[in-house]
Amino acid sequence: MSRIEIVQLTQQFKGHRAVDAVDLVIEDGDFVVLLGPSGCGKTTLLRMIAGLLEPTQGRILIDGVDVTELPSKKRNLAMVFQSYALYPHLSVAKNLAFPLAVLRTPKAERVRRVHEVAASLGLENLLERKPRELSGGQRQRVAVGRALVRRPSAYLMDEPLSNLDAKLRTATRQELSELHAELSATFVYVTHDQVEAMTMATKIVVLDAGRIEQFGTPDEIYHRPASVFVAGFVGAPPMNLVVGTVGSIGGVVTATAEGIEARLWPGVAEKRTVVIGVRPEHLRLDDFAANAESTAGSASALSVEGVVERIENLGSEQVLYLRVGDTLMTARGDDFGALRRGDLLALSAPIERIHLFDEATGQRLEWVPEPDELPAAAAQVAVMA
Amino acid sequence: MPISIRLAAVAVTAVAALALTGCVGGASAATSTGAAGSVATIPTLGPDQKVSITFESYNLAQAGAWTDTIQGLISTFESQHPNITVTGQAPATAAGANTSYISSVQTEMLAGNAPDVAQLTFDGLDYIANDMGAQPISQLVGEQAVQDAFGGQYPMNAKATKLGDWNGVTYGIPYVFSTPVLWYNATALADAGITHPDFSTWDGLEKVAQTLKAKTGTAPLTISCTVTGGDWCMQGIIKSNGGSIVSADHSTIEFGDDGSVGAVEEMRKLNDEGLLQNLDSASMYNAFASGKSLIQVQTSALQSMFMAGAKAGGWQLKNTTLPAFGTTPVAPTNSGSALFIMSKDPAKQAAAWEFIKFMTSPTAYEQISTKIGYLPLRDTMTEGDGPLAAWAKSNPLVAPNIAQLQKLQPWESYPGSNYSQISTIFSKAVEDSIYYGKDPKTTMQAAQQQAQALVK
Amino acid sequence: MFVTDVRPAPAAEALSNAAGVSPTRRRRRRVPIAPYLYVLPALILLGIWIYRPLVQTFQLSFYSWNLLPTQPLTPVGLQNYVSVVSSQQLRDALVNTGIYIAAFLVFSVVLPIAIALLSRQVGGRAKTAYQAIIFVPFLVTPVAAAAVWRWLLSDSGGAIPTVLGNFGIDIGDVLRSPSGAIWAIILIVGWQMLGFGVLVVSAGIAGINPDYAHAASIDGAGGWTILRRITLPLLSPTIVFLVLMTILLSAQWTYPMIDILTQGGPSDSTTNLYYLLYQIGFQNFDAGSAGAAGTLFFIAFSLLALGLVTLSDRLSFYDN
Amino acid sequence: MAFVPVADITLPVRTTATTIRSQDRARTTVKTASRRHIRVPAVVGHIVLIVVAFASIFPIYWMFATAFREPVDASAQTIFPWPLSLDSFTTVWQQIPILSMIGNTFVMALSVAACQLVIAILAAYGFSMWQFPGKNVLFLFFIGSWLVPFQVTMIPNYVLISQLGLLGTIAGVIVPNICSAFAVMLMRQHMQSFPRELIDAAHMDGRNSWGILLRVVLPNMRPALAALGIMLFIEAWNNYLWPALIFQHQSNALVQVGIRSFLGSEGDNWGAIMAASGLACLPIFLIYLFLQRYIVDGFVRSGLR
Fold first, then answer.
1. Is the ipTM of this complex over 0.85?
2. Residue C156 contacts B, CB cutoff 8 Å
3. pTM as predicted
4. Confidence band, pLDDT 50/70/90 cuts, at residue A375
């Protein structure tokens, strides 16, 4: 239904840039989640798309049409607010009908569509109530309903689940996903909750300090984080990130830090300081790891040695806190039950689970095979900043 | 009947408070009135008996000559009567712009601290005597003593002596008077070519005013009698036209009669011709004093203020008597006041009587007339070689005032406890008729009916 | 075979059984004493200084009494009420009171809404400065306000007639004009009220979650629609409050002006219910009529206030 | 041959930049989307507000302008008083004891405000922290007191004050005004929004209700107390009818009463009248100048239900 393009969009508030020259293309039918910590500029970005905030610089295009100067009422968007913004003086029915009323939709059509939406969201019995007489979940539905009734070109949502309790949130997540599938409309969704992002999004935009850190599918975001920031922000418990050194010993590239040793792959690398990252669930007790990875050979694995500091039992699994040198690393698994505080322990992770980032810029480092080992065309150096 | 019991309790508390502050309750007031004959009932003060009394006078409300003169008289009295202390106080006028001196005393009675001697205006005589419980002086001290006080070397003007009487009983001793006088700015008139204005009749006044208006383009005339606060002299204008305010037996309101309406119509005519300025009382005398109004009918009591204004503005102040309606005799009313004894304590009453006698003595009038400019009620003092003869001679401005004393008509008090409301109704009807386009006849008559309904 | 897991009995149950108290029976709540003690001083003072006089006024309304301790109270039944209700003065005062309140609503509600909306457009420091200046007249002592305006309106040398005179408009002595005096009083009191209204309305608007206006604008509403359908309805509790304040306090605010500038005149054109009440009570000393009038006003205002409060409850949307 | 930082993970942005018709219009100012509101050019807003602000302040300016003119120029219509003169103030200074009047009024207003504040704090505390039988009735009793016109209570209260022997004293002005239902309501609003957890915590720490009020509630409500206190002070300062009744024979006791009688006696001496009026307002203006935030707060809060 609509494709949203954002070019060099900037929002300057007194002294700082809430959104800093962002370029982004949201394809028609995408469910794009803007993810980031509070203050990263995600809501500002959404409000600029909505037309609630005039950008300091840059353009917004919807289906190729420049809407930067258009007031929000002419952009044909719908938005669900974090506070839901249900008009407190109007009943549910009138709240739902409001967008139609201001568009001067014929009365009969209005009633039909309100009932249609109410039926699809299970709000039929609440139509005459005022917002204050509704539960949080009901309010959220009405807010979604009010967005739906418009049949807009895109849906904007600003943390719509943050006021719900955990259980309701899970259920509503699914409903929103289904809704997206049904409507196959464009969704732009703001949240700081990575679970919401991972479960619902087709694409995630990770924002930090007004800039896009990464734009990709949930899988890409999780498994190939583009920067230390993304790596640390997505995942719970977060990825273990340790400053170490990359070098090579005997034709093998190695990464080392205090208590950590990894033999990576054949090659010669210049010595450089890096951030070594490994997700907690990829660290295994050494003997298991050794067995599992025996075919791959113990040479190309990362091993960690440390002292057990604490074990958290989550029921389905345990989280192990391991003191490695100066840092505390975490590991997730269901076989840490027998360990005790103070146990000396070695963990390992398979080579393809190791992430390396440049220490200075925080950017992901990929090992590019020597040019002579590859077809010339494949020698790519993509540096885009 | 719980309500009446509680009410009684309220009343009793109030009375008790009165008793506490040194006054006697209503019951004993009734006895003293009942027992009164023509013989004195109050004791003479013992040689060592110390008494202190309070004296409420509206002259004390104005700083300067007024207050100084009265305070001076009080200290003279105190030095003559070492056992009597007199505390002078101004009336409570701050609570509202329209609060009268009578209502001030009433407010104080309500609070249980009424003054022992009060200087009150004549418009409330009925009310003061019958409701507020002013003491019947002629019964307290005896008829003869009152007559003696009025007499003496310079006896009080005969017309004046009766003004404080109600049903043959003297309640108030007439104290200071003023009469309505026509003031004019002789310099401005001369500038307009009028050197010998004829102010003897309203027609004459009208002609002068028309000439002035033609010259200056603004309305020259202000008549304080026509606005709220001037009802006393409006009574005089009405009476000068043969009208009546209230019947002789004080039971019927009559200011809707032909004479009254005629007088009002005359004023209305002046206004319709654009000769009259519509100002409130205070603005009115300020306007004259500052030369913005050239002719003003106003109380003689403002003489010193006008003289100051004339001096500052460099113009000559002149005055004459109230104009007449054709050949009908002029009937000027008196503004002014009498002294009343409010105290119910015999000792204080005795002291009060001494004080009143002093304040209406030739000695006092000498001060009052020369320093404040009030009319000496003992008018013979201005004649022959009387103590005020020289003063009268050097002050030609007091002559019209003294002349009018001979024709003086009383400032009528309205009957009953609604006297003040009736006065308000009267003033409003007069203002409405003169300034605000209402028909004088129907307005005055309607007002008369409305007022009559308030007479109980 | 299966065995059921035996759970230990809840400790609480054991305890309450031991104490011999049935856990199902609710202990009766003790009535706390503390709140009464805290409220008591205020209550006593209100009783003495507000309600005692009110009760006395009510009682006196059935008597004829001129407030003189020496004079008797004569029971007259409902006659005071009859005479008060049938008096022309009361009717004039009632009409004037209506005019006053209607006109003050312009100054305390309509203009403040317009000004608050305008200053929202202006925003920033300028807005604060404007509002601070507009509020100043509210602080002016009534006596001084009356004096200043008397001077400004003075027929001889006042700034307003002089300036208007330069344009050939002669307004004369406004305070002596039966048609003009009431508007002069309204202007003066309105001048004092405006800043208060602006402040309250601004606070009211600031208290409205901007999401509503945002949502409405995304829903396709334009400026006027948002104002009419969202902002004003949401502002209605504030508006009702201001209306109530205006009705109740206009008396307090007009009284000094009337007293100092016109004394109800000319020709009763500026009097209102409160000034009339004052005249009856403190000038005519007619305790009975004053009592009757006071009682009637109290009842009338209670009903009015009750109506407004009910309205405001219906209009209140707790913004959460 | 080496590690390279990669950004290819970030999907390249393929813009249809050619469709952007407009040239690069860099905006220099931060604008919120004011188009949500009715579009009135800011200039119009400024003009209207300047006019209103001017109308608001002009009479006050004129008061001081007249007061500072030379007495002979009092009626001059020039915008700026020149030459400046303090003669009008001198006249006031000589005629009435303005300094002691202001001093007395200050004492009176301060006492009234302090008393009202204390009583209001107590009552509001009782109302907002407990549920108790009769609470609603009692609250109605407070609200109802608003509906009683001052003119109704005036005479009986006057009689009572005189019985207490307080006529003509500052105490007589203060005593009937110790409890302000209005202050109680406002205080209650504030207290109701006081965080419940803090009070519960203090209870757990073993404080009694009095201790909680003194050590927990009040210290945390200082701004609200200041705002309300200043507001009550201004109210008391500007009160005129009741003091006039109490100080019948001493028109020089309080400034409002004094000015009132000064107005009557000065006739057309506008310079002196304006000087006196200006002096009567001055303390409040000064307070406003320095404590504006609190005053505005106080009055604004009074508008919130």
1. no
2. yes
3. 0.80
4. very low
